Amino acid sequence: MKRIYLDHNATTPVDTRVLEAMMPYFTEHYGNASSVHEYGRLTRMAVDKSRDAVARFLGAQDAGEIIFTSGGTESDNHAILGAAYAMRQRGKHIVTSTIEHSAVLNTCKFLEKEGYRVTYVPVDEYGIVDLGKLKDAISDDTILVTIMLANNEIGVIEPIEEIAKIVKPKGITFHVDAVQAVGKIPVDVKKLGADLLSLSGHKFHGPKGIGALYVKKGAKITVFQHGGHQERNRRAGTENVPGIAGMGKAVELARDNMASESARMLVLRDRLYKGVLGSVKYVRLNGHPEKRLPNTVNIGFRFVEGESILLNLDMEGVAASTGSACTSGSLEPSHVLTAMNVDAADAQGSIRFSLGKDNTQEEIDHVTGILPAIIERLRKMSPLYNG
User: Domain containing 98 — which CATH number?
Assistant: First the structure.
């Protein structure tokens, strides 16, 4: 059975060129990047090269604005906790949205227990942050606004530049979770107006266990992890040199291929949705029809349960998801769809298909070919379906 992977927003396969770039730092060049001898100098060169690559890719002013982390969750935690603690004398109010990733939402909930006040700004029916409500939420003691660039479940791209225009004149630190966006759409920290920006290597064909946090020069942020003097005293711990080298290579590949690959995936994404729309009744698109990542489509199938669809797809060799991998196993409907006022039953029947660079038209046509029978079979077992 040929297997088809349509869950690239959860993770991506490591590109073979990325793996090749990593291998020497497991065996041949294994020195500690903080050591002063030649073994250390060779690995330090790899770290510096990757830092430069990430900085250039994001449009950062200086490579020193990049901190390597263990992934997107740590980057989000470092940004939010670091900014909150650094500015608590000024205020304890944070603004975010109702559809953020759990790495952001749960960090904000933790800070609420620490005495901080958090405002969760609503979104419209498409998942777009309400700019008027966001503006109204800001008060004299607001110290941080944290909004994602692209949503991991529905792919919707938020109006980050417009949000920055509201936030920046007030001197408020602005964090952007760009984990799901980097490698799929252009991400320029200056254009976005971000003070802090998070990314993760495994979302764009790099290895797991490596991420980065952009910290604009002058942005106030406390140390997140204590110990040695690594990352210019901002993140202690021996550097994950193979991961850093791999992320650097993944960034270079994304820079060279993102435009063409995104255009190709957009065609396949729309082919998938139109194929489903033309062959299955009672379906809806979750998210904005245009302001969306080129690889992501979230489709709601009425009268059926999402987990059952996934199991049936998996038996046919197709991997997809009902939403974020980080919330897998939860019996609750997606908090993103709930925030968009999608009916709970409809939210439970929603499936996310997220494409990658290796997906083909033949694979998409195979999926749209098998889905109608799966949905019809499941609906016949549903007490909600009348035919």
Answer: 3.40.640.10
